[in-house]
Automatic annotation (TrEMBL), chain A:
It is a multi-pass membrane protein. It comes from Paenirhodobacter populi. One of its GO terms (biological process) is transmembrane transport. Residues 67-256 form the ABC transmembrane type-1 domain. This is ABC transporter permease. Its main location: membrane. PANTHER family: INNER MEMBRANE ABC TRANSPORTER PERMEASE PROTEIN YDCV (PTHR43357:SF4).
TrEMBL record, chain B:
The gene is potA. The complex is composed of two ATP-binding proteins (PotA), two transmembrane proteins (PotB and PotC) and a solute-binding protein (PotD). It is an enzyme of class 7 (translocase). It comes from the Bacteria. It comes from Paenirhodobacter populi. This is Spermidine/putrescine import ATP-binding protein PotA.
Amino acid sequence: MSGKLTGTSAVMLYLITAGMMAFVLCPIVLIVIISFSDGYFVSFPPTGFTTSWYVSVFQNPEFTGALLFSFVLAVGTTLLSLLLGVPAAFAIVRGNFPGRALCKGLLLSPLIFPVLITGLALLQLFSSYGWSTVKLNLLIAHTVVTSPYVIRTVLTSLELVNPSLEEAARTLGATRWQTFRRVIFPQIAPGIASGAIFCFMVSFDNYPVSMWLADSANTPVPVVLYRQIGTVFDPSVATMSSIIIGLSAVVVLALDRMVGLRRAMAM
Amino acid sequence: MESVEVRLEHLTKEYNNSFVAVDNVTLTVGAGELLALLGPSGCGKTTCLRMIAGLVDPTSGEIVIGGKPITKTPVHRRNMGMLFQNYALFPHMTVAENVAFGLEMRKFSRSEREDKVRKALDLVKLGHLADRIPSQLSGGQQQRVALARALVIEPSMLLLDEPLGALDKSLREQMQLEIRHLQQRLGLTTIMVTHDQDEALTMADQIAVMRAGQMEQIASATEIYQRPATQFVAGFIGASNFFEAEEVSRDGRRAQLVTTSGIPLDVTNMRLVTKRVMVTIRPEAITVRPLGAEDPVAAPNTAVAVVEQVVYRGFMLHYYLRMDDGTEVIAYRQTQTEGWGPVSAVGDRVRISWDADSNHVVPLVAEAAAA
Ligand SMILES: Nc1ncnc2c1ncn2[C@@H]1O[C@H](COP(=O)(O)OP(=O)(O)O)[C@@H](O)[C@H]1O
Ligand SMILES: [Mg+2]
């Protein structure tokens, strides 16, 4: 059977795909266009072209501070999620303990529970224990939300690794750690990287959890953005959004490039 | 390389504290010998091998290599060469990197590694493929790389878990001879797991037949084939006909028996003391002749049967026969043999007969024949 579509059905498929792409990309493109708009209010079509919003946004210490804060928070969250998620995925796939399936379900559960509720629950937990270090609370909360992404992607790629590879390495004289580093890691690196991308993105634009936990000294950028919209609705919001979009794209591309290289070396 | 003797002493493995996969196995593999662990699927062969490798912890018992107990030694210090059914080559490394892996773990210098890898790849005739990636090789080539990777570390013994199971028949036979040849040349003590009796007969010095976690018999290929210790072994290695029989008279090792269906049997090697025994007869020991007018009736070791099916197997004809009382009999006949008279066809009544020496006696067990 040929896998290629032809004729009317092919045209239909192309149209549907194009429609979907437009649907997904339009808001982003719109925001980027508005960010260059020369006017005091958000309007479409834009009234002129200017880069002055970028200049003013970058001169706004509240925004740049939040951007840096979010970036550091997302990096920290990603690292912590990897640190917890990779061994957890390992234990679930290779381990042999009762309730493994249940464990798998529980560890992946924040993917089905509403994040808003998770945030509220964590706020209550932190305050009942009197944990008032906001930075740490945010890090923990974001990790709770993001680590399942790492577990899921690493789990999937680990399940594809033939267990005899580990056994072969062991009989050839490799310790557990050497086996992981030389044999397992190269196979699951794409899974780890995509998990890391998810973590970074989910943490970087997380609003529902940060909203509960942030204070005025520790404000992630989505919270700043939301506040900004509540006070003035000028194109600077679009500019900030565009900057976030750009930064996210750079991170994704960078990670993909790294993994892509690894893949190419593994082929 | 020095050959070592390998001993398993009362080796037992219980999974989940309930299921006994390997039950009190004791055996010795002589230095430089190849022992085949043979048995049906699920009888515990792989578990046995993995305990020797150190990949599974025995519940009790001892593994002794070259006189040293290694039961407590972790896998990566046991220095065993192991081959897996699915080759288990590292997909992200070239052939040469795969072979070098064990050497790297042993901290050999780069130049020593390159030298040893080249020699090992030449040994398996793959020197020209050193820079390939495993996925670019055929199954046979991949298993040869795995063999080179296992041999290059100069292991104290070689463990093979159905290493040729995924190859097609002719390649498998070629590889069997190749591995056997290398193993003998290097004097490498080897245990091979297989469920293929031909493979065991082709390659092994000793065959250990396992059944449900226990050893049934450990002996040379000829011994196992000609003098199986149990009905299970007789049925598992090659085909056998089984007749339950009772002793009528005995004179030393010679005995007169009669089967439950009334066929008198002459036995030259009555090695058991029990009166009721199972007699096994190999299909190739049975001669099939058309039932003539001057039929020698009532002589021992003969019977009358009807041909139910004739299967042409190249150099052998397989006759599926049924005796008048319903007992099924299999007989093989070489197609090229002269002077055996015409080939009998389906429906023919025939006289089957065999030598007294072909009657082999095994203990009678309550269960039905496994064959
Ligand atoms: N990790 C395990 N946990 C529980 N049972 C196992 C495990 N490995 C093997 N078994 C059981 O032990 C028995 C022997 O298995 P195995 O040694 O693989 O047999 P073979 O190699 O002869 O086919 C089988 O019944 C199998 O189901
Ligand atoms: Mg097996």
